[in-house]
């Protein structure tokens, strides 16, 4: 039997009101509607609201709505305002928000003297490069962490409501304080956005011929640079302190490497460069992989003709060989009539995958053991 969120009985009951019908809000709506939860949508933009409703993320509000849960999915600079308004308008509802910063709205609401007994800040670590209701997906949160920020005022029953929402959407609830959350996302989300954007900005002044040499490395490191500037100005401003700490440390590391490269034959220069690369190896090895494991996989690169059905055939034959595809990355070279499928497999499956695919006529461009 399928273990997907839509295959289970929903833990979330009653009416859920979602304020903000953009990517996150509409995606939450789609996921809950799949489980027949009554979802009410609201948005300051009538066109955004109508689009989300037309796509099936929820319905219009009615005067007799009595939501048990309100989800605020609005930009960070208005999160505190909307949370306060929803707490006042719905005195029986638990109110959560999904903003990507947690300390600033919490601090602002406390400064205003708002009763936060029914408020629980949260943040699903999920998203896409493109926003808006048209990009919303019901499976956006599956397997993703969902941070829940409780405090001494939080009632156990209210906490259970927010955690049930995360579980219904296929996410993994994780409790943190607002401070812990903001420090963590500064390192794992906010600074990577700045670094990707700054690196991608260098491409704007590159010679046209240089860009034709772009491979998967530069594409991987700049993928998130397509994000919306308006939203990121808000996010970075709201979490400026922790972001600056990481950026300052990163700037110091860059300066050390830069100085070493100015005189690569100077004593210790090559060690400085090697240590930087080695420390990067150590850091990336700590990132959780599939199902949250720290387990590392072997890489297998297969040449795939750029014709219909070839990728499906590759997957099918790997299945026949008993090889599970743990991860996949595709790369196309300009003008080439083939692509490179960079496949992650379990270490004990690599040899059998290489030998089995070669026997079936596939061209192997490389693997971890080369």
What does this protein look like?
This protein is an alpha/beta fold. It folds into 3 domains: 5-176, NAD(P)-binding Rossmann-like Domain (Rossmann fold); 183-285, 6-phosphogluconate dehydrogenase C-terminal like domain (6-phosphogluconate dehydrogenase C-terminal fold, Orthogonal Bundle), CATH 1.10.3660.10; 292-367, 2-Layer Sandwich (Alpha-Beta Plaits). Helix content is 44%, strand content 16%. The chain has 13 helices and 11 strands. It has helices at 23-33, 46-54, 76-89, 103-111, 156-168, 178-203, 208-211, 216-222, 229-238, 240-262, 269-285, 310-320, 350-359; strands at residues 15-19, 38-42, 69-72, 94-97, 119-124, 145-149, 172-175, 298-305, 327-332, 338-345, 363-367. The strands form 2 sheets. A 7-stranded mixed β-sheet has the order 2-1-3-4-5-6-7, sandwiched between helices. The chain starts with 14 loop residues before the first strand and ends with a strand. InterPro entries: 6-PGluconate_DH-like_C_sf, ACT-like_dom_sf, NAD(P)-bd_dom_sf, PDH_C, PDH_N, Preph/Arog_dehydrog, Prephen_DH. Pathway: Amino-acid biosynthesis. This is Prephenate dehydrogenase. Residues 14-291 form the Prephenate/arogenate dehydrogenase domain.
Protein topology:
Elements: E1 15-19, H1 23-33, E2 38-42, H2 46-54, E3 69-72, H3 76-89, E4 94-97, H4 103-111, E5 119-124, E6 145-149, H5 156-168, E7 172-175, H6 178-203, H7 208-211, H8 216-222, H9 229-238, H10 240-262, H11 269-285, E8 298-305, H12 310-320, E9 327-332, E10 338-345, H13 350-359, E11 363-367
Parallel strand pairs: 1-2, 1-3, 3-4, 4-5, 6-7
Antiparallel strand pairs: 5-6, 8-10, 8-11, 9-10
């Amino acid at each position: 039997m399928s273990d997907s969120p839509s295959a289970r009985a929903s833990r979330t009951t009653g009416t859920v009101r979602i304020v903000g019908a953009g990517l996150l809000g509409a995606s939450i709506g789609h996921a809950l509607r799949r489980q027949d939860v009554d979802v009410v949508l609201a948005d300051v933009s009538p066109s955004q609201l109508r689009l989300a409703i037309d796509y099936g993320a929820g319905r219009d509000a009615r005067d007799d709505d009595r939501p048990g849960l309100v989800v605020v999915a609005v930009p960070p600079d208005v999160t505190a305002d909307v949370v306060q308004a929803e707490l006042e308008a719905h005195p029986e509802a638990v109110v959560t928000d999904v903003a990507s910063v947690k300390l600033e709205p919490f601090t602002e609401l406390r400064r205003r003297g708002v009763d936060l007994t029914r408020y629980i800040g949260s943040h699903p670590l999920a998203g896409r490069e493109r926003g808006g209701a048209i990009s919303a997906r019901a499976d956006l949160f599956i397997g993703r962490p969902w941070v829940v920020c409780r405090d001494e005022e939080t009632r156990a029953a209210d906490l259970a409501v927010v955690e049930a929402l995360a579980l219904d959407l296929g996410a993994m609830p994780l409790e943190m304080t607002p401070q812990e959350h903001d420090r963590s996302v500064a390192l794992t989300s906010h600074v990577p956005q700045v670094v990707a954007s700054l690196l991608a900005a260098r491409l704007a002044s590159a010679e046209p011929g240089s860009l034709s040499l772009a491979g998967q490395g530069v594409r991987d490191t700049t993928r998130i640079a397509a994000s919306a500037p308006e939203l990121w100005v808000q996010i970075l401003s709201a979490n400026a302190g922790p972001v600056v700490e990481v950026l300052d440390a990163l700037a110091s590391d860059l300066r050390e490497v830069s100085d070493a490269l100015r005189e690569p034959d100077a004593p210790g220069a090559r060690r400085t460069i090697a240590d930087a690369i080695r420390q990067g190896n150590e850091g990336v090895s700590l990132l959780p992989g599939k199902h949250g494991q720290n387990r590392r996989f072997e890489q297998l690169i297969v040449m795939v003709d750029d014709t219909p059905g070839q990728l499906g055939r590759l997957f099918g034959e790997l299945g026949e060989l008993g090889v599970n595809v743990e991860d996949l990355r595709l790369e196309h070279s300009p003008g080439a009539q083939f692509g490179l499928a960079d496949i992650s497999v379990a270490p004990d499956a690599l040899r059998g995958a290489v030998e089995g695919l070669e026997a079936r006529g596939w061209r192997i461009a490389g693997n971890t053991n080369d």
